[in-house]
Each structure stands twice: as C-alpha cells, then as structure tokens.
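Dear H.,

Thanks for agreeing to be a second pair of eyes. The structure we're designing against is below in token form, covering all 312 positions.
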C-alpha cells in the first residue's frame, strides 16, 4: 500500500510538472488556432493514443457506471476547459488562475458528500489558505490588479467546481477495478461527445486543418494531445485512485510555480523576486500541511477482552 501511495504522489507531481509547461505551447498555438480547435485536437489525439496503448474495450456494465463515466467526461474535459476559456474572455489570466486554484477546496467539500473519498480535516483548509495566499503573491508580484467581471468570476468558479467534481468522480471510477488507461479513454470519449455542440459557440474553422502541415504547430499539438492530455490524464486518475482525490488535487497549488520557473529558464521573461520566493514558500507549506494527515485516519477498534466469569 505504501508503494502504491508513493507512486500516486510521483504521478501527481509528474502531471503538474507537465501541465505547468503547457502554457508555452498553448500561447504559441493561439496565434493561429482558436481555443476550441486546440482543445478538440488535444483530446482527439489523446483518445487515439489511449486506443493504441491499451486496445481492449470496456464492456457495458450498468447505466449507473456509464453515467459516472459521462459525468467525468463532461466535468473534467468539456466543462473545465470551455469554462476556463469563457473566463479568460472576461478577466485577466492572472485573476482566473487564482480562482482556479480553489479547485482543491471544492474537491474537499465534495468529498464530504462522497462515501469513498477521504474526508479533509482542519489542517487541509488551513493549508488551502496558505497556498492560495502564496499563489496570490506569485501571480501578482508586479502589482495587485484583480480585475475580473462578474461573468469572468462565475465562469472561473464554474471551471474550478468542474475539476473538483471530476477528481471525486475519478475515485469512484477507480473503485470499479478496471485498467486506468481504459477508464480514462472512456472518460475522454464522453468529453469529446459533449464537446461537439460547444464548437458552434466558439471560433471553429475546419479549414485550419491545413495548419497541421506546419511542423512547429504539429509538434505543439502532439505535445498537448499525447503527453499533456493522453498520458497526464492517466497519471492524474492513477494518483486520485492511489492517494485520494483530495490529496491529488492539492498538487494543483504547484502549477503557478512550474509556470514561473518555465518563464524564467526557457522564455527568459520572468525575474525571481522576493514576492515570488515568499509566495513559493507559502505554497509549499500549504501543500505539505494539506498532505500531512489531511484526512481522517481510520480508527482502530480496541479489542476488549471478555472476562470469563468463573462459577464458584
């Protein structure tokens, strides 16, 4: 069990490390493609990859389980990404990123209603406050300007809610005992199905398929689709099943740090200031506080020795 939990923490760290770098590819792709086109290509590639890695299909077992897969695809793929796009239309990226960092909080609240998810204790919520304080320092280190409209805030909160619920659903799906790649593929499939109607609401141009002939564009799409979506959704679901959705979601606190480090080392557009260092310390402290004994430990029943009454 300890080995599985250690592997779960490693899987969560790996996932966040990759997701924190996706902004580089996404920013470049947005120069030629719309957000809807990028998301569609990402998950089509992810679906194809998961079919190649693990061809066996999941059999239909019950309506209830199929609805759970569909809800996970709706929340973790369709709603999360498209609500995030909608939020960015009405608010600055920095403000949206801070609101999205509340996903672990919502995951903790949802877990209180779930029988299979771990129940967070007080230190989880204290760690959440520390981590969000650090994220605010890191995000607004050049000056605090939390410019966000009501629409932008609602879309961002909706995106955070969707991811929190998705993390709880993956724990439920993990209890089915199926291969993680197969269950992730089923989730992505439903996400793609729900994505089709939303394409009409965003800028989607089928003629942009010709841009795939451009090698840098194709490489960035492959990175987002195969690694960031295909592989990382599997590792995230594995982590949620191994260490629980609440602990897994707290690793999202590290995402802004990964983004800043990438900007500093690769894009040379970021400088390390004392606000960033202090914010990083608060984020890491909040993460550790949330992870260490963040859930109720199972109570051990004390064995009571029955006293045998001797007949005199």
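And this is the sequence the design step returned. I haven't edited it by hand at all.
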């Amino acid at each position: 069990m300890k080995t599985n939990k250690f592997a779960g923490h490693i899987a969560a760290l790996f996932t966040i490390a990759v997701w924190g770098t996706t902004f580089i590819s996404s920013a470049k792709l947005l120069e030629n493609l719309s957000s809807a086109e990028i998301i569609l290509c990402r998950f089509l590639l992810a679906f194809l990859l998961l079919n190649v890695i693990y061809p066996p299909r999941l059999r239909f077992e019950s309506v209830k389980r199929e609805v759970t897969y569909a809800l996970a695809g709706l929340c973790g793929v369709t709603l999360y990404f498209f609500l995030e796009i909608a939020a960015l239309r009405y608010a600055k990226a920095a403000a949206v990123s801070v609101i999205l960092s509340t996903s672990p909080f919502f995951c903790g609240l949802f877990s209180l209603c779930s029988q299979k998810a771990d129940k967070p204790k007080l230190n989880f919520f204290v760690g959440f406050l520390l981590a969000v304080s650090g994220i605010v320092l890191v995000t607004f280190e050049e000056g605090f300007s939390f410019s966000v409209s009501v629409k932008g805030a609602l879309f961002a909160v909706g995106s955070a809610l969707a991811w929190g619920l998705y993390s709880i659903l993956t724990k439920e799906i993990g209890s089915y005992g199926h291969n993680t790649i197969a269950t992730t593929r089923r989730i992505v499939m439903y996400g793609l199905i729900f994505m089709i109607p939303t394409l009409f609401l965003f800028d989607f141009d089928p003629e942009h398929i010709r841009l795939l002939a451009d090698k840098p564009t194709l490489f960035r799409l492959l990175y987002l689709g195969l690694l960031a979506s295909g592989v990382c959704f599997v590792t995230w679901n594995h982590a949620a099943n191994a260490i629980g959705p609440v602990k897994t979601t707290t690793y999202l606190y590290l995402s802004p740090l990964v983004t800043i480090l990438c900007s500093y080392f690769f894009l040379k557009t970021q400088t390390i200031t004392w606000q960033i260092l202090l914010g990083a310390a608060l984020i890491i402290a909040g993460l550790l506080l949330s992870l260490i004994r963040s859930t109720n430990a199972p109570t051990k029943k004390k064995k009571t020795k029955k006293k045998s009454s001797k007949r005199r």
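Two observations from my side: Residues 122 and 294 are 8 Å apart (CA to CA). The chain has one domain: 2-291.

Warmly,
E.
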